[in-house]
Amino acid sequence: MKNVKVLGSGCANCETTAKLIADIADAKGIQIELEKVTDMAAILGYGVMTTPGVVIDGKVVHAGGVPDRDKVAGWLAPAAGGGGCCGGCC
């Protein structure tokens, strides 16, 4: 399960981003843990200066503006290489 955080103040773009991610995950049958982070200190801790920001499994993948559907789908897609801890060895 992927851990997804949407960083932002709760503005319309942040809410739209969170809904877009949830809708795409649901449509693809991908389980995610979605968290909205509104604490400005926490947001700055990720180095995000423009919101909405998106963090997946601890890595910032987006900052500023609503991402497009294809980007979101790519973030949620299973890693290539067959899985395992390092992409295919196990």
Largest sheet: 4 strands, mixed
Q: Structural class of the helices, strands and pairings?
A: alpha+beta
| Major beta sheet, strand line-up | 2-1-3-4
| Percent of residues in β-strands | 15-25%
Q: Extract low-pLDDT stretches.
A: 86-90
Walk me through this protein's architecture.
This protein is 34% helix and 23% strand. By secondary structure, it is α+β, with helices and mostly antiparallel strands. The protein has a single domain (2-76), classed as Glutaredoxin, CATH 3.40.30.10. It has a four-stranded mixed sheet with strand order 2-1-3-4. Helix 1 links the parallel strand 1 and strand 2. Helix 1 packs across helix 3. The radius of gyration is 13 Å and the shape is globular. Mean pLDDT is 90; it is low at 86-90.
Defining traits:
single chain, Glutaredoxin, alpha+beta, 90 residues, 4 strands, 3 helices, four-stranded mixed β-sheet, 34% helix, disordered C terminus
List the helices and strands and how they pair.
Blueprint: E1 2-7, H1 12-28, E2 32-37, H2 40-45, E3 53-56, E4 59-63, H3 69-76
Parallel strand pairs: 1-2
Antiparallel strand pairs: 1-3, 3-4
In short:
With 90 residues, the chain is an alpha+beta fold.
